[in-house]
Design goal:
By secondary structure, the chain is an all-alpha fold. It is 75% helix and 2% strand.
Length: 520
Amino acid sequence: MGEHDESEIIEHHDDEEMEKRNRFRNDSNSLLESLTPSERDGQRSTQPSHRLLAYSDALISIIATVMILPVAHTKFQNTEELKDSIQLLLTTKIAVYLMTFLIVTVAWAAHIRLFQVIERIDDTLALLNLACMMLITFLPYTFSLMATFPNNVLGIVFFCACVIVIGLIQAVIVIYGFSRPFLLNEHIQMSENRAYYRRHILEIIMKVPLMCFFASIFSFIFFQLSYVLLAIVIFMPYISQCLKWIRNKAIGGPSDDTPDSMLFYTYHPNEPLSKERVEAFSDGVYAIVATLLILDICEDNVPDPSLVQKEFGGSLFAALQEYGHEYLAYFGSFATVGLLWFVHHSLFLHVTRATRLMGLFNTFSLAFIGGLPLAYQLTHEFPSGSRNELEAIQISCVIIFFAGLFQLALWVTALFSEHETLHPYVHYGGREHAFMFAKLSLYPCVALGTFFFTCILSRFSAPIFHLMQIAVPFAFLLLRLLVRVTLAVLRWLFCPARPEVGNTPVEEGDSRLPFNDIVT
């Protein structure tokens, strides 16, 4: 009887899906019939936007990550206290890198939302997107001018001019896309409130150029206020959402006046982001960081032929032995980047839909991933056993800790809306959930433990750090076995065997951990 009912439900669901497809096909046919002959020719000349978006993601990930190079290639004197140097870096180069990474990723997130509305492109949209990419890649230079000459208004004016032009180009893309409905996504294409969508999206896009226009004006009057306005531009989505929440609480109810379900440009933390583009951008950052590590090896660790002949009697092997600790630092750093990517990859295998808040934590994690070339450079820059080496290793532990911590925060954010963002087999309480949590917790715990061990055993800081880098890959190999053993022990301790009721088999993938209340 149960199987019969289930088959009826499945058949009913299939009938609903078929009805939806037929309805969409009929709407599409009616839309095609309403097009003029010139518009039909224009539709035939369109193409999917996949390759354009892949190119844009690659370009933005490169420009966001290479900004770490000026920081990583800063030269230190062995007699110079690292603490003073790091204080100088934090006020200049590291601040420039972090803010530039954040600004570029904000522009990338705006690009995602724009091309979630516009799903097909033609030659005009491709050229407009190239102009937008050119200005986005110019943003780090303008921000470097602002950081290097904070009291000069020219850097602020250049930055604001770029953002204003980017906003205007995006507004032109929206106007052009809505004038040709066959370029839009299915939801907006078939909506009766297309004019509302167009006005709403243009209002949100033009807020940023308007704020930057006022910031450029105030830079000639009171330039400190210009920096405040620019910070508001960066965090505008979250400020807007907080103000909306406060207004709704004060009024006593929601005040949304949207005529139907608005999926994009809502500034809501659960606003959907393209999972595929988040993965592509993240993969680009990880790949570039791994590549930057080998560039440092090729640049600094190839001995001069005359030096090999003079000091090592022509023995290249003896000369390369001098760089042994640098090779160890490279392989350890590459393993760290690769395993953090592996954790990120495993996490997004379980994600069905990405949200704005998940994208924010992913951005923070990638910003610290981009700092790993700095960690590699610092760990082999100073003499063994020196105070500078200890502080450099501790900085590396902090970078790895926060890179892993924000990955864990991303997972926790997904769990809050697990029915919309995660596959059912990784919901809270399942075996795969426990295994994923163990994966995400490994690097933050190991990095934190290494930091405290180096504080206690400062003379052995370098061996402890390299041991951590070598041991973590083996820990990942044994992790699933350790999780299974731990779950079995917890079941044995807290959940003794109960008499079986019925002979209905229970699938392993649907099982839940019986100690949720204990954990809570």
